[in-house]
Amino acid sequence: MRVLSVYERYFARLIYGVFAFILFAVLALFVFFDMLSELESVQGKYTSLIAFFHVMLEAPTRIYEVLPIAVLISAIYVFSQLASQSEYTIFRVAGLNTRQALFSLFKLAVPLALATFIFGEFIGPAAEQYAQKIKLEAIGATVSSGFRSGVWVKDRDREPEEKGAGEITRFVNVQGLRPDQSITGVTIYEFDKDYRLRVIRVAKEGKYQGGQSWQLNDVNETRFIELRDGQPAANRDALAPDFRGEQVQFPNILMHSELTPQILSVLLVQPENMSTVNLFRYIRHLRDNKQDTQRYEIAFWKKVVYPLTLFVMVALALPFAYLHARAGAVGVKVFGGIMLGLSFHLSNTLFSHVGLLHTWPPIVSALVPGTLYLMIALGALRWVDRH
Prior knowledge:
It is a multi-pass membrane protein. This protein is of the alpha+beta class.
């Protein structure tokens, strides 16, 4: 147990030291390219300094994305060096077998997996949302979806007791979301339980008041009132209208809705960069309104599984400790590790799109890349252990 404690500390010192250097180098490279891309948006109040601050706020998300690749490259470099200097052979002669080495690497990966979880769940999403708000405030713009008509959201509610307590279905169109999370260009189509249009409500802006309540300002409301409620359709005059419309204007009204700024903040942050808590809330909202949730479920399960990929990365790196100097230079092995890490990142993205296209179960789309590379790692370990 004393020998195991010694080599574990030795591995940790080497891997963590190289990992810090590689993470800094990879992150600096991403920040450089992000800054070059962001300079195209510099104009007016959105100065180069604000653009740099915006890019730096996106850095935690970049750290979250490249952590597994940095771990893989650093571990491959360390084990290639140990193999070239025959140090790992000495550890094996001292009694270290493949299973013990793999278990020790898993223990070293636990703090890194925890750091990945913290960056992906807390630091990254908060910094990303704040970065988008700073940019929007500087350029004086609002966020909207890729559609010309804005973003559409389905919402369900119930009428007050005095109006019959029936179910209401709303289709809400929002033209933009301001940095202060107020909404602009709001159009609401409200249907009764039989999906008959009863109200069209147009508001200049809306502000969240808390308690699932929105204050709509400068409201123009068109109401459709049925003239002969309850009369059989066979007895109605086809030339006479069944409904009449009336328009009412209000300076402001309060509207109860399950929509919250957290749900609408999906406009600011991509699903892949959201926290699992916000993803879970938004998925529940979509399910309550009988809408498609697959894209967000895939993003949710990827966020859950992603910290576990650190264990796959160290398992992929261990076979390089068995390749001696005559099997190739250290630089070639590191280059192979970089290609291996990039291929994992690409396959992780690819399977998300393939799963969405073929409607695979979301958890399968999230697990397939990691499982595939884990099988490759275990197969390689079995091969080098035999040879």
